[in-house]
Amino acid sequence: MLKLIQQHIEEVFKIKKVDLAIIGAGPVGTFAAHFAHLHGLNTILFDSLSELGGQPQMLYPFKQITDIPAFGTIKAHDLIQRLTANLENETEIVTNHKVENIVKNADGFTIDDSVFARSIIIATGAGAFKPKELPLKMNDDIKKRVHYFIKDPKKIANQTIGVFGGGDSALDLALELANYADIKLIHRRDQFRGLESNVQKLKSLKNVEILTPYLPKDIQLIDNKLDISLKEMGDTQLRHEQFDQIVVAYGFRANNRFVKKWGIDLKGTNIPVDRAMKTNIDGIYAAGDVVSYSGRVPLIALGFGEAQIAITSIMRNLFPEKTLTIHSTSI
Fold first, then answer.
1. Rounded to the nearest 10 degrees, what angle do helices 300-318 and 27-38 cross at?
2. Which of 38, 120, 131, 176 has the most neighbouring CB atoms within 10 Å?
3. By its UniProt entry, which InterPro entries does this protein fall under (predicted)?
4. What does the radius of gyration of the chain's CA atoms come to, in whole angstroms?
């Protein structure tokens, strides 16, 4: 009876059927989609953002990642490009779609009344994220010149750019933009939270000025320039600086609590998993920085391995009769 009802629903709503739905298209989600393709799984990949890559692509595309084996160092943007190079030929990709509802039924899960998946991998990283904004009152004309993401540095070439922040992302961003524009890096402390080697690189550049310890207090648009009032910490004096545009790198707020409504257990904002990457719901797995288990560290490379474990578990569950080939490193 349940199968007849399921068949009727699929016919009425033309539900797409897949072996695997992956929620989250950051580094781990995109690699999971590729690895699923290697094993012949019919897969669909969802992401709420307009493009693939997650936080590395949107928040720190110029960050030099040094803990991916065999690369030595690679920019986050370049890593995402490599991970997604052939993905559209391997997997159906759905961007600009925030998964709202997951309903468990006899043979799998119905996702937002449009997709029936026999299994699911959650790879949402730190979760839905929103940049921490510059805490100043701004009109629409000013907001057009205040950025939280920079995708194409060439568009700001030969301008004066203010970069606000003191962590690794701010330092990486300032170093990259310094290849195209004059940079003023503003931080509220004398000490930065990023790599000291990057601080020294910035100090050595003639087109970079470091302003510390200052807090932005006001912003106006005067004579087609952003005029920002900076207050020195521990002083009442204001300093005015002019910019063509500014980039704010204060970090972001993120949460994964939206998965709770799917019936998935959380430990804080993370999903507890077992050794097979299974959640508390049969058929739903998780991988990457969203997961929690004893001894885990937040590394992209570790997430890749977790994705492989999850997909291997899924293959054994969906196709127990098949001899599973572990790719690349098995003879």
1. 40
2. 120
3. FAD/NAD-bd_sf, FAD/NAD-binding_dom, Fd--NADP_Rdtase_type_2, Ferredoxin-NADP_redctase_2
4. 23
Distance CA 276, CA 45 (A): 21
Instruction: Give the model's pLDDT for residue 331.
Output: 56
Contact between 254 and 283 under an 8 Å Cβ cutoff? The reply is: no
55 carries a ligand binding annotation: yes
Q: What is the pTM of this model?
A: 0.80
At 325 the pLDDT is 66
- Tokens of residue 75, six digits: 């920019």
Q: Is 163 annotated as a binding residue?
A: no
Quick one: DSSP state of residue 287? Answer: -
293 assigned binding-site residue: no
pLDDT at site 2: 45
For residue 4, what pLDDT is reported?
46
Tell me whether residue 78 is annotated as binding.
no
Sign of CA dihedral 129, 182, 63, 171: negative
DSSP-based three-state secondary structure for 155: helix
What are 81's two structure tokens?
């490009």
Judge whether 242 is annotated as a binding position.
Answer: no
**pLDDT means over runs of 10, the chain (331 residues):** 48 79 97 96 94 87 86 91 91 93 94 96 86 92 92 91 94 94 96 91 97 96 96 90 95 80 91 97 97 94 97 94 65 56
**Number of C-beta neighbours around residue 298 at 10 A:** 10
Which regions of 8-47 does DSSP assign to beta strands (E)? 16-23, 43-46
From residue 140, alpha-carbon distances to 135, 160, 213, 245 in Å are: 15, 20, 28, 14
Annotated binding-site residue? 47: yes
pLDDT computed for residue 164 by the predictor: 97
What's the token pair of residue 293?
A: 């288990």
| 129 labeled binding residue | yes
